[in-house]
Amino acid sequence: MRNGMDITLNVMERGSGKPLVLLHGNGESLEYFKSQIRYFSRSYRVIAVDTRGHGGSERGSAPFTLKQFAKDLKALLDTMGIRKISLLGFSDGGNIALIFALKYPDSVERLILNGANLNPFGMKASALIPIAFEYAAAVVKASGGSDALRHMTGGEDRKISAQKREAVRKKELFGLMIREPWIRPKHLQEISCPTLVIAGTKDMIRTSHTRLIAKRIRSVRLVLLRGDHFIAAERSRAFNRAVERFLRESEEEYDTGD
């Protein structure tokens, strides 16, 4: 769907009711949320979005940053005539959701953060260090001038070009994770909507970091599920029930004014 900017975003809509927007993680697509789309479309208007340069969405020429992705989402919602949403973000999608909620507070009714982090050091070293190495390797390959790249591709221009395009893509994706986000904990106090912070007990995000996020948000519920970073896919039943419970109970509190 054209979002009024320089690109078309790929969007999947299912169900009816209040809008629930789903934002996938780095290098993923809306397909990551297939269990959530099926489950929540029974009660909500589910809108799953491929962020810029992911899945079926165009890359465009704008900066490849989380802030830009948040701007893209706002432009998309404006185009669709949607003023207020519940927003569920996973991993980098959770980071985008945080940025979006801080920049457009009137647009977010409820916020669900799954495996989000405030800065790259929120990741465990066991996750961050390999990402840094992958990024460094992609930077070298993206330069396109190394003998190693030519040797690897047999010296064929077409293969070199394909390798370079893939390296540029990896450079952007891994670069997001080692450079972004940078959100000060004190700014989380500005988030006033009901928020669910949910993560795996063996998440790549440090549990102490996840607890810090929950501690700084005013109206928050923290849920830790047994599992790793990908609990929405690998433990979808428990994940969906926790999210559903939060949405239902926070909606009841909101509607009654308690």
- DSSP helical segment count: 9
Q: Radius of gyration, rounded?
A: 19 Å
The SSE order reads: EEHEHEHEHHHEHEHH
Whole-number mean pLDDT: 92
How much β-strand is present in the residues? Answer: 15-25%
Total beta strand runs: 7
Class by alpha and beta content: alpha/beta
Q: How is the main sheet built?
A: 7 strands, mixed
Strand order of the largest sheet: 1-3-2-4-5-6-7
- Span from first to last CA? 38 Å
The 3D shape can be described as globular
Q: Runs with pLDDT <50, length 5+?
A: 145-155
**In percent, how helical is the residue content?**
40-55%
Question: Describe it for me?
Answer:
- The protein has 258 residues and is of the alpha/beta class.
- It contains nine helices and seven strands, in the order ββαβαβαβαααβαβαα.
- It has helices at 34-40, 66-80, 92-103, 125-143, 147-152, 157-179, 207-216, 231-234, 236-256, and strands spanning 11-14, 19-23, 45-49, 85-90, 108-114, 195-200, 220-225.
- Strand 6 (195-200), helix 7 (207-216) and strand 7 form a beta-alpha-beta unit.
